[in-house]
Known about the structure:
Layout: H1 6-13, H2 20-31, E1 35-40, E2 55-62, H3 71-81, E3 90-98, H4 100-106
Amino acid sequence: MTAQTPQETTLQATTSQARIPIIEARLNAALAPLYLQITDDSAKHAGHAGAKEGGHYSVKVVSAQFTGASRVTRHRMVYDALADAMQRGIHALAISAYTPEEFESLK
């Protein structure tokens, strides 16, 4: 059995709202986003069977690293940044991933 790091333990033991800074730090480190919004949607899923296993989140992330990448590849990039957290504190993740140009055209 391998020992958990303090961050892994924090992901499991903390409230869904308290996981947001961990998610933010990981996405910032991996994707250098120009814009990042993380929303805790856990309250909307109270009573849902999987809600006990972790929080429900939505992320909107804008990164130049998404340029030329398909939607599936962008989502994989986000999941890769949060890989172990998906097993230890995040039950569901809705992703909106944009290039800077795409995000600008939404305004």
